[in-house]
Write a structure and sequence with these properties.
Length: 235
């Protein structure tokens, strides 16, 4: 049994067709799992279902063996699940420090120690702590978003396209930061379009096609799989 599981999830939007069909994804603490696939495959939908932003028609969500399928997104956050959306993931008019403080809305203890831990993971945030986030580069803003998500000391971190719109150099830097977060024993699920690079840092991966599990395996196995390479990795 994995630490965080979405089992046989079927869900869609409103009265529309199902976007994911009996889709299963799981992740352990200290592990990075990538969700890959073509546009419209249901990658972000699967993540939203696990977060509770989308109601399941069937299937279940478990964290640490406990079924949380009926919990609201807010209550799932209280269980230790943190989410960084692809867009609108920072408060551009606030400083770096203020963004981190906003992320600590569930904490009642001393924030200074937690913020210092975030600064250790992301040194540029300490350097820019008094700067308005809207003035930062795209890569720095993503670090703010990651740092803010970590302020609740989550056990699960969900990332939706963390490297969207950044340069290859910045992408590599962000992935290195994600590896550092993993080393703090956080379970990380990441939806990512940059499939090759994502698999290279992932312990395991899932490839979705039309809302269903098409391939799964270790990052290395998927990188070497001829059909995955031909269909999804441009090789």
């Amino acid at each position: 049994m994995a630490f965080f599981e979405g089992n046989k999830m079927t869900a869609g939007y409103g009265n529309g067709p199902d976007i994911i069909n009996s889709c299963s994804i799981n992740v352990d603490r200290g592990e990075i799992v990538a969700i890959l696939g073509p546009n419209g495959a249901g990658k972000s939908t699967a993540m939203k279902a696990m977060l509770g932003l989308l109601n399941l028609k069937s299937g279940s969500i478990l964290i640490d063996g406990k079924d949380i399928s009926s919990l609201s997104p807010q209550d799932r956050v209280k269980k230790g699940i943190s989410f960084v959306p692809q867009t609108r993931n920072v408060f551009a008019g606030l400083t770096v420090r203020e963004n981190l403080e906003v992320g600590a809305f569930l904490r009642n203890d001393d924030l200074i120690k937690v913020i210092e831990e975030i600064y250790e993971l992301f040194p540029v945030l300490k350097e820019k702590r008094s700067q308005i986030v809207g003035e930062l580069s795209g890569g720095q803003r993503q670090q703010v978003a990651l740092g803010r998500a970590l302020m609740i000391k989550p056990s699960v971190l969900m990332l939706d396209e963390p490297t969207a719109g950044v340069s290859p150099i910045v992408m590599d830097e962000l992935f290195q930061h994600i590896i550092k977060v993993k080393e703090t024993n956080v379970a990380i699920i990441m939806v990512e379009q940059n499939a090759k690079q994502a698999l290279s840092i992932s312990d395991r991966g899932y490839v979705l096609v039309t809302g269903q599990n098409k391939f799964e395996g270790s990052g290395n196995e998927l990188l070497k799989d001829p059909e995955v390479r031909r269909s999804f990795l441009g090789a």
